[in-house]
Design brief:
Length: 548
C-alpha cells in the first residue's frame, strides 16, 4: 500500500518571495502532488508550478490518476489543467495517435495511461492544451490554452528537502510546514518550514544556503546549541565561556555564516596549485613550470636547456614540457632513437646497404654510382677487362663502358677489353694508357698547353695549365664493334702496301746496279739483253724488224 504523506517540497530562492502554497497535497514517494484552486490560464498555471520548483502534473499511470482523484475528487464538475500541450510546431491534433500529438512538459509522448472523453475522428487546430474534468470518472478534454479553468495540478520531486532534525535526549522539536496538510508525519520538510526547539530557545528555518542547497539555519551567524545538529557547524561545535562556536579542520577556514567551512585555497589567486600551509597557503606550479617572482603565476621552464641529456638526439622545448625527436633515418622507440631499416629493393638500382641514419647504394662489378643520381649505376671498369653488360633475355645485346671494346672469350663469355688510345696518336708527345681512358705527357722542357698538345716551357710565364689525370680525347673513338674491325682492316692494308713498296724498291735498285756493271755478271747481261731485245721489239723500227 502506498504511503500517504503530507507535504510539498517548495524551494524558495534567496531574495524572492515564497511561492504560492497548494490548497492540498499528497506525497507518493519520491513525488508529491498539489492542487491549486482559482481560475488560471495554462501559461499562468505552469508559472506557479515552476516557482515552486515543480511542473504541471504528468498523469502517465493509474497511480498518478489515483492521486488526482484523492486531491480533486470532492469537486465534481471542476476542470483543471494537466501538463499536456500541443507543441508550437504542430498546428493540429492527430486523433489516431495515443496522445493525439500532445506532449508532456518534459517534451516526450511516453505514457501508460490515457483517459480521453471520447475518440476524436477529426483534427482540431490552434493552440491546444489538455484539461482534466472531475466527475464519476476523471476524463481528459482538449481545450484552448488561453481558456481560464477552475484550477491546476502541480507535481514535485523530493530531491531538495531539509531532513528532520536529530535532537538529543529530552529535546523536542515542533515543525510548522509552510502549508496546511493532511498528515504531520512528513518524510522531509519543504522550504520555509520552521523547526522550534523551546527547551533550547531555538527556532530554525529550512532555507536555501549560499550554494543552492536546502538546509536548516538561522538568520544570525554562528553556531546554535551544540546539542542539536552539531550546532549547525560543518566542522566541530565547541563551547567557549558558555558560547557555542564552530571550528574547521586544518587547511580550512570559517565562512561568513560562522558555521560553514571552506578551504584556505578557496579564493587563492594561484595560477596552478594551492597548498594550505599553516593559517595561509602556498602557490605551486605544474611540472615543467616554475613559480614567478610574484609567487602566484607560473612560467615555463626550458627543459632542454636545463637538462641537456634529456633526449637521445634532439630535444624541442614545449609549453610545460619538452619533446624528443630523432635525426633523419631514425625513429623514436621508448625514448631512444633507433636506426630505421631504409634498404628496400626499389630504392637502389643494384644493391642497398643500411648505414647509420639512412642507406647507401652500391653497384655491381663494372659499374659505378651515377654522379647525377647516386641511386643509379652507370657502366665503369677500373681494370683492363670487365664482364660486359648483356641483356638477360638475349646475350647478343651487350654493352661496354666508354674506352672499352667488346670481345668474346674462348668460353663464349662477353668481355669488355680496354682500348689502347695511345695507339691512336691522341697525344703529341707521350701517352699513358689507363682502363677506359689515357693521359698525355710532355717531354722534358715542355708543358701541356691543352689536353693533347705540348709547348716549350719558356712560352709560359705563369703557372702551367693543369689537366685531369684521365683527360678524355678531343674526338671520341669509334664505337666498340666498328672500331675494332676497322683497326684490323687498316692494319692489314698498311702491311700489304708496305710489302709491295719494298718489292718495287728492290727491283729498281737491282736494275740500276746491273746497268752500271756491264757484262760482269751473267744474270745482269742476260737480263740486259732481254730488256734491250724487248725494247727493240717494242720500238717499232723497220730496220730492226728487217734485221730480225
Amino acid at each position: 500500500m502506498l504511503r500517504l504523506c503530507l507535504g510539498l517540497l517548495l524551494a524558495a530562492s534567496a531574495g524572492r518571495s515564497a511561492p504560492e502554497p497548494p490548497a492540498d497535497t499528497l506525497c507518493l514517494e519520491p513525488d508529491c502532488f498539489g492542487v491549486f484552486w482559482g481560475r488560471r490560464r495554462f501559461a499562468e498555471a505552469s508559472g506557479v508550478c515552476a516557482a515552486g520548483r515543480g511542473r504541471l502534473m504528468w498523469v502517465r499511470s493509474t497511480v498518478a490518476a489515483g492521486a488526482t482523484d484523492l486531491l480533486a475528487g470532492q469537486r465534481r464538475g471542476a476542470r483543471l489543467w494537466l501538463g499536456l500541450q500541443l507543441p508550437p510546431g504542430r498546428q493540429c491534433t492527430e486523433p489516431g495517435r495515443r496522445l493525439r500529438g500532445f506532449r508532456w512538459a518534459a517534451g516526450d509522448e511516453l505514457t501508460d495511461y490515457v483517459a480521453w472523453r471520447q475518440p476524436r475522428t477529426h483534427p482540431v487546430c490552434g493552440r491546444r492544451c489538455v484539461a482534466l474534468e472531475v466527475g464519476k470518472d476523471l476524463v481528459w478534454e482538449e481545450e484552448r490554452c488561453d481558456s481560464e479553468l477552475d484550477g491546476f495540478l502541480c507535481e514535485y520531486n523530493l530531491t531538495d528537502f531539509c531532513a528532520k532534525l536529530s535532537p538529543g535526549a529530552g529535546v523536542a522539536v515542533t515543525y510548522t510546514p509552510s502549508f496546511e496538510g493532511r498528515d504531520s508525519d512528513l518524510p522531509a520538510m519543504p522550504a520555509g518550514t520552521t523547526a522550534s526547539v523551546p527547551s533550547l530557545g531555538l527556532e530554525l528555518v529550512c532555507q536555501v544556503s549560499g550554494d543552492g542547497v536546502l538546509q536548516w539555519g538561522t538568520a544570525s551567524p554562528g553556531a546554535w546549541h551544540c546539542q542539536l545538529e552539531n550546532g549547525g557547524c560543518e566542522g566541530t561545535c565547541h563551547w567557549e565561556q558558555g558560547t557555542p562556536l564552530c571550528s574547521c579542520p586544518p587547511g580550512e577556514r570559517l565562512e561568513q555564516d560562522q558555521r560553514s567551512c571552506a578551504s584556505l585555497c578557496a579564493n587563492a589567486p594561484c595560477e596552478h596549485h594551492c597548498i594550505p600551509h599553516g593559517g595561509s597557503y602556498t602557490c605551486m606550479c605544474h611540472e615543467g613550470y616554475q613559480l614567478a617572482e610574484d609567487s602566484v603565476h607560473c612560467r615555463d621552464v626550458d627543459d632542454c636547456h636545463a637538462k641537456p641529456d634529456l633526449c637521445d638526439q634532439e630535444c624541442v622545448n614545449t609549453i610545460g614540457g619538452f619533446q624528443c625527436r630523432c635525426h633523419l633515418g631514425y625513429e623514436l622507440v621508448e625514448g631512444k632513437c633507433e636506426d630505421v631499416i631504409d634498404c628496400y629493393e626499389e630504392k637502389c638500382q643494384h644493391k642497398c646497404v643500411d648505414v647509420p641514419g639512412g642507406y647507401k647504394c652500391t653497384c655491381f662489378d663494372g659499374y659505378a654510382p651515377d654522379p647525377q643520381n647516386p641511386d643509379k649505376c652507370v657502366l665503369f671498369c677500373n681494370q683492363s677487362s670487365c664482364p660486359a653488360d648483356c641483356d638477360p633475355h638475349t646475350e647478343a645485346t651487350c654493352y661496354c663502358p666508354s674506352g672499352f671494346i667488346l670481345e668474346q672469350t674462348d668460353g663464349n663469355k662477353q668481355m669488355c677489353v680496354d682500348l689502347d688510345e695511345c695507339e691512336m696518336d691522341y697525344c703529341e708527345h707521350l701517352c699513358t694508357n689507363e682502363p677506359g681512358s689515357y693521359r698525355c705527357h710532355c717531354r722534358e722542357g715542355f708543358v701541356l698547353s691543352d689536353q693533347h698538345s705540348c709547348s716549350p716551357e719558356d712560352e709560359f710565364s705563369g703557372d702551367t695549365m693543369a689537366y685531369p689525370k684521365t683527360a678524355p680525347p678531343t674526338r671520341a673513338p669509334p664505337k666498340a664493334d666498328s672500331l675494332h674491325l676497322g683497326v684490323l682492316v687498316g692494319i692489314s692494308i698498311g702491311i700489304l702496301a708496305t710489302i709491295l713498296a719494298l718489292m718495287a724498291l728492290f727491283y729498281h735498285l737491282m736494275k740500276k746496279h746491273c746497268a752500271t756493271q756491264g757484262d760482269k755478271g751473267y744474270k745482269c747481261s742476260n737480263s740486259t739483253e732481254k730488256e734491250l731485245g724487248l725494247q727493240q721489239v717494242t720500238s717499232g723500227s723497220p730496220a730492226a724488224n728487217q734485221k730480225l
